[in-house]
Specification:
- The structure is a single chain.
- The protein has helices at 10-18, 26-37, 51-65, 83-97, 113-120, 131-139, 156-161, 165-174, 194-201, 230-242, 255-267, 281-292, 326-333, 354-364, 407-420, and strands at residues 41-44, 76-79, 104-107, 126-129, 150-154, 181-186, 206-209, 220-226, 247-251, 272-275, 298-301, 314-319, 343-349, 370-371.
- By secondary structure, the protein is α/β, with parallel strands linked by helices.
- It has three domains: 3-210, Rossmann fold (3-Layer(aba) Sandwich); 220-371, Rossmann fold (3-Layer(aba) Sandwich), CATH 3.40.50.300; 387-423.
- It has a seven-stranded parallel β-sheet, sandwiched between helices. Strands 10-11-9-12-13-8-14 form a seven-stranded parallel β-sheet, with helices on both faces.
- Strand 12 (314-319), helix 13 and strand 13 form a beta-alpha-beta unit.
- Helix 2 (26-37) runs parallel beside helix 3 (51-65).
- The radius of gyration is 22 Å and the shape is globular.
- The structure holds adenosine-5'-diphosphate and magnesium ion.
C-alpha cells in the first residue's frame, strides 16, 4: 500500500518522501486507518516493523485536520518506557512537525525539571514523555490534560513492568473525557497485566495484531550456546566477536556486569561503550548518539536498551545473560533484523540462566536447537525438570534440547521471579517505584 492512499495531509506525504518511505508496512496499513478513524486501538507487530509511524501519522493528521479542544493543553501525549526510546520517537516526530506550525516537546526523567516547566508553559501541541516525569509535572500543575485528544502508549507492557501503572492511571484520569482517543502499541501485548490496564484506559478498542508475539522475526537467526560459568561465557564471546560483524549489542543481567564486561572488551581493543540506567542523562545521550552514528562497534547494556531502539547497523545481538522476563528476549533480539534487514542473535545459557531460558521457550512455544563451538563445548547440558538452578548437572541429564515439561512449576515460579527482579540489581531504567518489596528499592524515582 502507498501512504498516499490514506488521504494524509500533503506535508506529511512530503516528509515521508524525504525519509525515503513510500510503501506502508503491514502494521501501518492496518493501524493507520483505525488511528485516523478516532477509535481506540491495541496494536502489536514484530520488532522493527514500523510501529512508530503507525501512530505518529494518525496523530499528526488529527492535529492538522481538526480544531483543538483547548488552546493551551497538549493535543497529543506519547508515553514511552525509557528516555532513549523517547528521544528516538521525538526525533521522528520532529521530522513530521518540521513542515508545520505545530510545536513538539519532550519531557524526560533525568533532565532539568524547571526548564521543563518553562517549556510546558509554552503550550506544545505534542508532548513525548516518560510517565514518571510527566506525572510529576501533572501533579505540580505545570500542564493540564483536559484538552488531550490523543494518548499514545508505546511499549505499553514495558511501562507496566517498570511499575508505572500508577502514573498511567493518574495521566488517564487527568485526560478523562469522551473525545479522547487512546492507542497502545508493542511487539508483545498478549501477556500479563496489560489487559487490566487496557480495560481501564481504552474504550472498546480495535485489536490489530500482525503475527503473534511468540512468532519470531524470521529475519533474525537465533543461536543458543550452553555455558558452564562466567569464564566459559567470556570464551564463547571472544570466539563470536572474532568474526566479522557490523555493530553488536551485548545484554547483561545487571549494571555491574555491564561495566565489568565493557571494561574487559575495551582492554582487548574492541571499540566498546556501556550503557546502564545509573548514568547521568547527558552521558546516556552521548553514548547512544555515538553508537547510533557508528562511532562505537559494541554496546554493552542492560534491558534499559532492550525496547524499541532503532539502530540500523546492528547485525548481532548477544544475550550474555538470559533476560528475566521472557518477552524481553523478543525485544532484545529485535534490535537487529530491522525494517527487512537480516540479523543474528546469540544467547549464552549457563546454570543460572536455565530457568529464564525455559521461560523464553515457553513464551515462544518452541524448543531451541542448541549450538556448539568446536573446542568450547562445556559440561553443562541443562537441568532436568524441577532440579533447576540448585541441582547439579550430571552425566545422565538430558541434552538440554528436550522440551521443557512441567509448565505449571515454571509458571508458579515466574511471579516469584518477577518480584525478585526488583531486588537483584537488575537495571530497570526509569522505574519510578518498584513493586515489591518496597523497602528494598534500589532505584531512585525520576
Ligand atoms: P518498531 O516500532 O515496529 O520496532 P520502528 O517504528 O522503530 O519499528 O521502525 C523501524 C525502522 O523501519 C525505522 O528505521 C523506520 O524508519 C523504518 N520504517 C518505518 N516504516 C517504514 C516503511 N513504510 N518503509 C520502510 N521503512 C520503514
Ligand atoms: Mg517501536
Amino acid at each position: 500500500m502507498q501512504f498516499t492512499e490514506f488521504s494524509l495531509d500533503k506535508r506529511l506525504v512530503t516528509s515521508l518522501e524525504h525519509m525515503g518511505i513510500n510503501q506502508t508496512t503491514e502494521i501501518q496499513s492496518k493501524a493507520i486507518p483505525v488511528g485516523l478513524s478516532g477509535r481506540d486501538l491495541m496494536a502489536s507487530s514484530k520488532t522493527g516493523s514500523g510501529k512508530t509511524l503507525a501512530f505518529l501519522l494518525p496523530a499528526m493528521q488529527r492535529v492538522i485536520s481538526t480544531k483543538a479542544l483547548s488552546k493551551r493543553d497538549p493535543r497529543v501525549l506519547i508515553l514511552l518506557p525509557t528516555r532513549e526510546l523517547a528521544n528516538q520517537v521525538y526525533a521522528q516526530l520532529r521530522l513530521l512537525v518540521a513542515n508545520t506550525q505545530y510545536k513538539a516537546m519532550k519531557i524526560l526523567g533525568g533532565e532539568n525539571f524547571n526548564d521543563q516547566a518553562k517549556a510546558l508553559a509554552k503550550d506544545p501541541h505534542f508532548v513525548v514523555a516518560t510517565p514518571g516525569r510527566l506525572a510529576d509535572h501533572l501533579s505540580q500543575q505545570h500542564l493540564y490534560l483536559n484538552g488531550l485528544e490523543l494518548l499514545i502508549l508505546d511499549e505499553a507492557d514495558r511501562m507496566l513492568d517498570l511499575g508505572f501503572a500508577e502514573q498511567l492511571r493518574a495521566i488517564n484520569k487527568a485526560a478523562d473525557h469522551r473525545r479522547r482517543q487512546t492507542l497502545m502499541f508493542s511487539a508483545t501485548l498478549d501477556h500479563g497485566e496489560i489487559n487490566d490496564i487496557a480495560a481501564e484506559l481504552l474504550n472498546e478498542p480495535e485489536h490489530v495484531a500482525i503475527g503473534e508475539s511468540h512468532v519470531e522475526n524470521q529475519d533474525i537467526t537465533q543461536k543458543i550456546y550452553l555455558a558452564d560459568h562466567l569464564d566459559h561465557k567470556e570464551a564463547l564471546l571472544n570466539h563470536v566477536l572474532k568474526q566479522q560483524h557490523k555493530q553488536v549489542i551485548i545484554f547483561t543481567a545487571t549494571r555491574d556486569d555491564t561495566d565489568r564486561l565493557a571494561g574487559k572488551l575495551a582492554q582487548q581493543g574492541f571499540n566498546t561503550s556501556s550503557l546502564s540506567g545509573n548514568l547521568k542523562q547527558a552521558a546516556r545521550n552521548q553514548i547512544m548518539d555515538q553508537f547510533s552514528r557508528g562511532q562505537q562497534q559494541i554496546l554493552v547494556t542492560t534491558d534499559v536498551a532492550s525496547r524499541g531502539l532503532d539502530l540500523l547497523n546492528v547485525s548481532l545481538v548477544i544475550n550474555f545473560d538470559m533476560p528475566k522476563f521472557a518477552e524481553e528476549y523478543i525485544h532484545r533480539i529485535g534490535r537487529t533484523g530491522r525494517a527487512g534487514a537480516k540479523g543474528d542473535a546469540i544467547s549464552f545459557v549457563g546454570p543460572k540462566d536455565w530457568d529464564n531460558f525455559k521461560k523464553v521457550q515457553l513464551f515462544l512455544k518452541k524448543r531451541f536447537e542448541l549450538s556448539e563451538i568446536d573446542g568450547l563445548t562445556g559440561k553443562f547440558k541443562g537441568f532436568k525438570d524441577k532440579q533447576s538452578k540448585s541441582a547439579k548437572a550430571t552425566k545422565t541429564v538430558n541434552k538440554g534440547t528436550k522440551p521443557t515439561k512441567g509448565v505449571k512449576a515454571t509458571k508458579a515460579k515466574s511471579k516469584d521471579q518477577r518480584d525478585k527482579r526488583f531486588i537483584t540489581g537488575v537495571d530497570v531504567g526509569d522505574a519510578p517505584m518498584l513493586r515489591k518489596p518496597k523497602s528494598k528499592l534500589q532505584e531512585t524515582p525520576e
